[in-house]
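Bumping with the actual sequence this time:
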Amino acid sequence: MEYEIISEWFQYADMDLDSAEYLQGKCPQPLEIICFLCQQSAEKNLKGYLINKGVTEPPKTHNLDTLGIMCSEYDNRFQEIKKACSVLTAYGVQPRYPNELGIMENDMRKALEYAREIREFELLVNVRREISQKKSPQKEAETH
């Protein structure tokens, strides 16, 4: 059952990034919303990792630097995505309110790039694969 919860975190992370990518094609582009969704995707990926490591209740924070430090306690390679976490953290709260950030199209492109970098980060990909494999036998058993 734990695998279902972890899998849901990753599914929601994917939905956020997919939505951000979809909105990129809109005219005018909702830059703030796209950046917010990129931050949310990264946050859910990191929290999914932490839950996989046994953190029963991930912290209620939008600060990706904090989440990245927590993830680094399990594997120091999370330092590789430190810059992506730092940049995306700013989009966790401010874009939800008018005139808080002067987000430009280039900022949006960078946010999408960093959100993809986090999703494709080797350690997260490995956890996703592991969870998927553990879920598969469970689903087969349920259908028989």
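The tokens above came from a reply further down the thread. Residues 2-23 form the longest helix (22 residues).
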